[in-house]
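Weekend entry, working from home. Most of the wet-lab plans are on hold until the incubator is repaired, so I used the time to fold the two sequences that have been sitting in the queue since the last round of cloning. Logging both here for the record. First:
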Amino acid sequence: MLLFCFFGAVPASAGNMDPAALKAAFVLNFARFTTWPDDAFRDDTAPIDLHVYGGQKTWQAFRNIDGQQVGTRKIRVRLMKPTEMVDKCHIMFFDHDVDRDDLTTALAATKLQPVLTVGETSNFINLGGIINLFSKSGRLKFEIEPSRAKRGGLRISSRLLKLAIILDD
């Protein structure tokens, strides 16, 4: 994860880490560099709810970050089906296997909400997502659409933006 903080792209095989575990580590760091509006939480210690939409391997990787500390909050990970939309979700991760129609519906429902949406499909940003993870030349990289995050009330740290490929609608 130190490589992520300093270089922005990490070899997809970093330290023999499973690709799904590496993506979970990236999402954890995205949470650490994102600020939600005060009214997104019931109090200062309420957890950051991370909903994972994907297969069993993705779910297992994300379970490893359940309970990790992000500021005064802990990450609470839940496996969800795309048709299950839950209020007060703070982060949604969509793996590459999520059905396009389900993905489009979920992203539309979060359009102006303080929900950090992270995916890993080539058209994720075009469909309304905020952060897209992708592999290029054997390295895991990410692109961000910051104006979409801002419309939802999220603030993404300039430290994270410096490491990203910035897209703007």
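Second, folded right after the first finished:
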Amino acid sequence: MKARIILATIFTSVLLTACGGEGSNVDCGLDQCTVTFDRGVDASASVLGVEAKLVGAEGDKVTIEVAGEQLTLTVGQPATEANGLNVSVESVTDSQVKIKIAR
């Protein structure tokens, strides 16, 4: 029983430290994260073991870098694969860009 508690604590810590960054808000589940980037700042986040960075946004097109691979995506298009992860844009506003990254 003690081993289960220790493993659960370690697993929770890994999940919490696996997501986060500057200029971003990250909400992670077991196999996906939703990242909300602030526009107009150098925004990045560590998500599912890789670095995600907002490069730019114009209209409904967003350019992001995930694990060193640069993608230009449109809001609502099906997810695009980048280094084994599925990446999609959920929304773009004047102040924020929201993307989803999943395994």
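Plan for Monday: verify the second prediction. The chain has one helix and nine strands.
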